[in-house]
């Protein structure tokens, strides 16, 4: 087996005196699409921020065999793309330039983009159905449009790791599906994709693995089918997850216990 991209042992995070993550341990490999799930306040965003190197932690966390805590910022930026939950653009940049920011860790600038940079930016915008917005100001976009542009920036970076916090939250159903398909494609290309999701149906349908958190503790880790069958999700969410099949398409619906 190849060396894990991330290897965590006894990872704990305390914020303002409150224990947010406790003794988390896992390995994450290239080619996986991992959904981090759990109820509100479970520690999902904190776990993603910890993987991105944005949160102080106790324990051991390795990135490609090296200690993440001392990984140079330049190397981390070339390895990990991070999409926060509520991204914002506060200056009137063209959409094309916002997406091109994903190429900055590799020596590009908005005044100096190589042919490869331009190709990756264009592909990112097209994959996120945002190419028609390329010359608009990012500050004039709707919330869903901006979310797609910020994902395009992540895809344009072409880093080996993508960390995305609620990437479908502000999107309409068609773009939710397109976003999940883009993340699946990235994993199939050999990247590690880790996404926080509150949509259990989308997570179960597209992710290859789910990590379930409850009160900062990992209470489930495995294939979506195994977690659904184990009863863990029913217990931590307090609802029943029912499989339905409509015209050959499998989906989940929920019901109160």
Walkthrough of the structure:
- With 257 residues, this protein is an alpha/beta fold.
- It has one domain: 3-Layer(aba) Sandwich (Rossmann fold), CATH 3.40.50.
- 33% of the residues lie in helices and 30% in strands.
- The protein is built from nine helices and twelve strands.
- The chain has a six-stranded mixed β-sheet with strand order 6-7-8-3-9-10, sandwiched between helices. A four-stranded antiparallel β-sheet has the order 2-1-4-5, with helices on one face. The chain has a two-stranded antiparallel sheet with strand order 11-12.
- Strand 4 (58-63) and strand 5 (66-67) form a beta hairpin.
- Helix 4 (115-127) crosses helix 5 (143-157).
- The protein starts with 5 loop residues before the first strand and ends with a strand.
- The model has no long low-confidence stretch (mean pLDDT 95).
List the defining traits of the structure above.
6-stranded mixed β-sheet; 9 helices; globular; Rossmann fold; 257 residues; alpha/beta; 33% helix
Shape: globular
The total count of strands amounts to 12
CATH classification, class level: Alpha Beta
CATH fold group: Rossmann fold
Distance between the termini: 41 Å
Strand line-up across the major sheet: 6-7-8-3-9-10
Helix-strand category: alpha/beta
- What is the element string, with H for helices and E for strands? EEEHEEHEHHHEHEHEEHHEE
Low-pLDDT stretches: none
**Helical residues, percent:** 25-40%
The number of helical runs is 9
CATH architecture: 3-Layer(aba) Sandwich
User: How many domain units?
Assistant: 1
Percent strand: 25-35%
């Amino acid at each position: 087996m190849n060396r894990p991209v991330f290897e965590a042992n006894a990872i704990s995070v305390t914020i303002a005196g409150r224990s947010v993550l406790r003794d988390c341990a896992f390995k994450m490999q290239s080619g996986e699409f991992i959904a981090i799930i759990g109820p509100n306040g479970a520690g999902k965003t904190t776990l993603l921020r910890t993987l991105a190197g944005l949160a102080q932690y106790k324990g051991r966390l390795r990135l490609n065999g090296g200690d993440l805590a001392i990984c140079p910022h330049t190397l981390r930026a070339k390895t990990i793309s991070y999409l926060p939950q509520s991204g914002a653009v506060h200056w009137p940049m063209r959409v094309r330039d916002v997406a091109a920011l994903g190429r900055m860790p590799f020596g590009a600038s908005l005044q100096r983009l190589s042919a490869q940079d331009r190709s990756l930016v264009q592909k990112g915008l097209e994959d996120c159905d945002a190419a028609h917005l390329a010359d608009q100001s990012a500050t004039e976009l709707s919330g869903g449009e901006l979310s797609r542009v910020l994902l395009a920036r992540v895809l344009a970076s072409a880093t080996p790791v993508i960390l995305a916090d609620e990437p479908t939250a502000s999107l309409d159903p068609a773009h939710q599906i397109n976003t999940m398909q883009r993340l699946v494609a990235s994993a199939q290309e050999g990247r590690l994709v880790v996404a926080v999701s509150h949509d259990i149906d989308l997570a179960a349908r597209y992710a290859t693995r789910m990590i379930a958190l409850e009160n900062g503790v990992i209470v489930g880790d495995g294939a979506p089918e195994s977690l659904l069958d184990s009863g863990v999700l029913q217990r931590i969410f307090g609802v029943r997850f029912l499989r339905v099949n409509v015209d050959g398409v499998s989906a989940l619906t929920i019901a109160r216990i």
